[in-house]
Design goal:
439 residues; alpha+beta; 4-stranded antiparallel beta sheet; two-stranded parallel ribbon; 9 helices; 64% helix; 13% strand
Length: 439
């Protein structure tokens, strides 16, 4: 059963994907495909982190906005002169010209300063605020893409479990038939009407089929665990898949010619388009850095132990800054930002061509998978018919045990090829939906 082992290897390497577990209480979940996908979107840590990124981006927008809003600060200060003599100066004390030291300072001094500032003009602030909003859009689109990828991954594992379950059913029926045939063959051998090699041949076929059954059972258990990982539940929880494989095939057998490709709705293209806008704003921000910054301020000073030299309590004013010459540093930054913007444009154009090609390839793959499915379905029905007739002829002594063994192997290979075709059809439909923005 070389084909069986290849089938197991293909499934294992194709669908095993690193996922973490979100602990929950032990439970039993009965899930359709959509319910499994929705559950994963709400519980899988990758999706939850992507959602947190969106919230973080919203806070970043407010952070950028707050820079241009009024800023209020309050500072208190306490000072004490440690020397025995406070700073003083001499003044005439009387008609004799005697001098007297007089100090205008207190040994302990307390002051409170309140400052209010308001940004009046900053080119960097205006562009930076726009960039923060674009960054939020980029986070939202990344969250959407994460959801699409999770839906595709869950669907792939879900389909694998259903096809493995179908294989297990067929192998179970085959084992029942082989055990019955082996029992009949032994009785005929004991009656002296068959050679022991006939018994050995049927026994060998039975053991190989039992090995295949064990392999499928083990892989089925692994894929159940994988689906739990993708959904963010523990391996102790139980899940029951409520979808029927044949019903899924019927739903996903469509006329793909009705699909029309809209590049502007493709999530990958939209992300690159948003990234291009972001890089353009970053270029504008670097250009705006050559403009002056203007802010207004109001300051209130309160000195608790006032002296004749106490500074004014109320101050208003403007501050302006303009970096006129920085030895070409700003020019270099602008040049770097322009390069990043051009790279973003090139990436978007290249991705647009790739996505168009990928959509066409997805259509071709679906047509191929659909044709293969119909062919393998007919092959399976024919091999089942041949298997049943050969088993009947064997009971009647018209064919040898070797013929029966070969026919059984052919039947199992046809079953595996058929279920692989089903799985390929369902996965190609998922890929088609993803390429045409329908997932």
């Amino acid at each position: 059963m070389k084909l069986t082992r290849n089938f197991l290897l293909v499934i294992t390497t194709h669908f095993i994907f690193p996922f973490s577990v979100l602990a929950q209480n032990d439970s039993i979940l009965s899930l359709s495909l959509k319910e499994a996908q929705d559950f994963a979107l709400n519980h899988f840590y990758v999706s939850r982190n992507a959602e947190l990124d969106v919230k973080a981006a919203s806070n970043r927008v407010w952070e950028s906005t707050a820079i241009g809003l009024p800023q209020v600060s309050i500072n208190g200060q306490y000072q004490r002169y440690l020397d025995d003599t406070l700073p003083s100066f001499a003044i005439p004390a009387g008609p004799d010209g005697e001098l007297m030291d007089v100090s205008i300072f207190e040994r302990d001094n307390y002051s409170l300063t309140a400052n209010v500032s308001q940004l009046i003009f900053s080119g960097e602030y205006i562009v930076g605020l726009q960039a923060a909003r674009i960054y939020k859009s980029l986070s939202e689109e990344s969250f959407e893409k994460t959801g699409i990828d999770i839906r595709q991954a869950v669907a792939g594992t879900y389909f694998t479990i259903l096809t493995l379950t179908e294989n297990k059913k067929v192998l179970g029926k085959t084992l029942d038939n082989l055990r019955l045939i082996l029992d009949q063959t032994r009785k005929i051998y004991e009656a002296g009407m068959m050679e022991d090699t006939d018994v050995d041949q049927i026994d060998l076929t039975l053991r190989r089929t039992e090995n295949d059954m064990q392999s499928v059972s083990n892989l089925l258990e692994t894929m159940h665990k994988m689906l739990k990982y993708q959904m963010g539940i523990t391996t102790k929880d139980s899940i029951v898949l409520t979808e029927n494989l044949n019903a899924l095939v019927d739903v996903n057998t469509i006329d793909q010619s009705v699909y029309s490709f809209d590049l502007d709705n493709n999530i990958d293209y939209r992300i690159l388009n948003t990234n291009e806008q972001l890089q353009h704003l970053l270029l504008k921000r670097e250009k705006s850095s050559v403009l002056p910054n203007v802010s207004g301020f109001y300051t209130y000073n309160a000195v608790l132990n006032q002296t004749p030299f106490t500074p004014p309590q109320h101050l208003v004013g403007l501050t302006a800054g303009w970096n006129i010459f920085e030895s070409g540093m700003k020019t270099a930054k602008i040049a770097q930002a322009r390069i990043e913007y051009e790279k973003a444009q090139n990436m978007k154009e290249q991705e647009a061509e790739r996505l168009i090609l990928a959509a066409g390839q997805a259509q071709d793959n679906y047509i191929t998978a659909l044709t293969k499915y119909y062919n393998e379905e007919q092959n399976f029905l024919l091999s089942e018919k041949v298997m049943n007739k050969t088993a009947e002829k064997y009971r009647e002594g018209l064919v040898s045990s070797l013929d029966l063994s070969l026919t059984n192997s052919q039947f199992l290979q046809a079953q595996i090829s058929y279920t692989m075709a089903v799985q390929e059809l369902l996965n190609s439909k998922i890929s088609l939906d993803k390429a045409f923005n329908k997932l």
